[in-house]
TrEMBL record:
Organism: Wenzhouxiangella limi
Keyword tRNA processing: yes
Protein name per UniProt: tRNA pseudouridine synthase D
One GO CC term on file: cytosol
Active site: 144 (nucleophile)
Gene behind the chain: truD
Reaction(s) this enzyme catalyzes, per UniProt: uridine(13) in tRNA = pseudouridine(13) in tRNA
InterPro entries membership: PsdUridine_synth_cat_dom_sf, PsdUridine_synth_TruD, PsdUridine_synth_TruD_CS, PsdUridine_synth_TruD_insert, TruD_catalytic, TruD_insert_sf, TruD_pseudoU_synthase
Amino acid sequence: MRPISGRRWPAFAAAVSKAVPTPSRSRSRPARPTRFAAFSTAKSRSKTRFRSFSGRSRNDAAVERGARVSEGFAWGGPAGRGLIRACPDDFEVEEVLGHEPSGEGEHLWLWIEKREHNTVDVAGMLARAAGLHPRQVSFAGLKDRNAVTRQYFSLHLAGRDDPDWHAADLPGVRVLSGQRSARKIQRGRLHGNRFTLVVRGLEGDRDEIEQRLLCLRDHGAPNGFGEQRFGGNNIARARALFAGQLRRKPSKHKRGFYLSAARSLLFNQVLRQRIDNGSWNRILEGEVAMLDGSRSFFLPDPADPAIRERCERLDVHPTGPLAGAGDSPLSGEVAELEQAVFAAEPDLVLGLQRFGLRHERRPLRMRIGALEWSEPEPNTLKLAFTLGQGSYATSVLRELIDYDLSTESRLGSAHGRGL
């Protein structure tokens, strides 16, 4: 194991800078994008169209390239077909925070169950009910809108009694419990999420489906960003934002979605390349590896038998880029692969740098924890599993089945309300 040493890409940065024209200050409205066709399905098992992690945007070549970032499959393509999110109860998410409230203090932690609301909207509802500014309500992570989800929110109530939640107008929201704490909930500080999903109208050989589930349990899945990350037109909006062509200045919340979508697209493109060359679950020379369940990373020696053994048991993972400014510790073929992806999307790379994002790393592979499955009724598959922070249940499902979304869920994701 070697310590990380920074390595700059001056030649690459210069080349990208020359490739990007000075952003226009035009006030014209950007071209209306088509809806992302994320995770599209086919009518025939024999002619299954591959799904994309990101879907489609405008008719420019760069977006077309980004739309197909994950046509390949790590484990040989779907083993069956089915419908997900037929109703909110078919998709449950329970936050695994990893720490508990202290029992006393000026912050009230609420354990909330919500239906068909996104996390930000629920935070606003709680703020209004308690007479607080929205900034005084905190949460660890965003959860799906088209689902039944349970998570913690904290409210800053210094010198105040707890509100009467029974009298509060909170449609679609249940306050399950509340406890005081000395600290507020920190954004991004959580271990992960526990998912319980139901697949209806299941088709496919049951033995093949079970073998795929065993493979996913033992070997993990590609850690791509799911379609919820991209909404209906977040990539097109990110490009317009970077070019100075948005008609109205977006809110900080919306701008965050656009920046995240741009980063996610680049990561998924690198992941696709690593799936295609068979290295998404292997440590390569010049690789940055990450410890499972943490953000700690290091430069390993891929020839070390101990490193190979730890990688095989999912203790360490290869990583991909979350683009931004700063040094890259990569070298060799891994650095060349990521540079090639970045060079093909110079507007996104430089836009992310101009907006102050720093280069970070994300595991290319995810461990699927405590995976359980059953068939509670004919042609119905029930799944339960735990994923680490930032990993998507739909990225697990695409390795198992060729799934379709209910109409309501598809529209929700298309308009960016799937978080």
